[in-house]
Hints:
This protein is an alpha/beta fold. The chain has helices spanning 24-35, 48-51, 62-70, 75-80, 100-104, 113-127, 178-181, 249-259, 311-332, 336-339, 341-364, 371-384, 388-399, and strands spanning 13-14, 17-20, 40-44, 59-61, 82-84, 87-91, 94-98, 108-110, 131-134, 137-142, 150-154, 161-165, 168-171, 188-204, 212-216, 222-226, 232-238, 272-287, 290-291, 294-296, 302-303. The strands form 4 sheets. An 8-stranded mixed sheet has the order 7-6-15-16-17-14-18-21. The longest helix is centred in the last third of the chain and has 24 residues, at 341-364. It is globular, with a radius of gyration of 22 Å.
Amino acid sequence: MTSASPSNSGAPQRFPVVVVGAGPAGLTIGNILRAAGVDCLVLEVETREFIEQRPRAGVIEEWAVRGLQRRGLADTLLERAQLHTECEFRFAGERFRFAYGELTGQHHFVYPQPLLVTDLVREYADVRGGEIRFGVRDIQLHDLETPRPSVSYTDAGTGERQLVDCEFVAGCDGARGVTRTVLPETTTIARHDYGIGWLALLAEAPPSSDCVLFGIHPNGFAGHMARSPEVTRYYLECPPGDDPENWPHDRVWAELQQRLGADGSPPLTEGRLIEKRVLDMHNYVVEPMTFGRLFLAGDSAHLTAPIAAKGMNLALHDAFLLGDALVAYLGKDDGSGLDGYSEACLRRVWDYQEFSQWLSEVYHGTSSGDEYRAGTTFARLRRLFTSPAAAAAFAEQYLGTAATY
């Protein structure tokens, strides 16, 4: 629970909104507020250099990019991002191209999260003059159930405690951040563990395809996603909790070549592995996404495993809704957006959770050791490439256009 305001922090500062966490959600909220002339303070425990280099997601759905564009936050992205209109499934030794752009007229943008964060923090701090403090320690939230909440923290430069009075706190600091620790016992946290792991790899090698590749193989799932002309993201299904050291260079590339191999496809272009970590596939959803004057956004409120590449998109969706709702309340005394915030966010969150679960069966059914699951996996894949209705439904969910916004 939250604590009472500390009495030994000196004269407090005041900002209408304090944003905890400088990821895509927090920085987007900050930029929306600054564009409307609302002062806010962003607090981040890491350094600016760290958040601008932290490897994360890279696929942004078109609706999310248009949302950034409407808010003046997508100029560099639109200049530099790759556009993807197709993906390719590889299974049973064959290649199956899925042209979702032709079905929908929409596409994906491939733009690594570190680049988006760099753009957003530059716009917020350097262009729009927003206040941001990096490297802060021991953030604490106070009096969230009152009209006058506050946030205290230890300044990185001076080591002194600082107190900030505010009207609202935006919790954008992820699953391990402080904002998750203050939720009351009445909060529901729904969890799902897939019981599998993915070995996440970054290879210093050019992409081996012009689109995303999904390898459905008895040895386990494999994925190929371009990140830049020189770097490629790969995934390999592995046991949960596996040690990355169990995957030396030669083993990684042998498995990738086998799982992503198909008739008529050239071998993957190999290169030095510059990142190697194991992700245990799990999801969670926090309901409601609010507590008093605290509003959660992004991974603080929900996690969608990278199975469907939805996490950064959900964070941006939250940020658009929360940023606009805060502007409406603080500028026009219109509280309808804040009142409906959690429900509006969770509609899209649960839609993406369901798609992630469906796609997990497609990715992992053949490697489960269960002949029944393997059979239903191939049935789903065959239907995807023989039924126009099934293809259209998949394309809508893959692009996020079927969800309510």
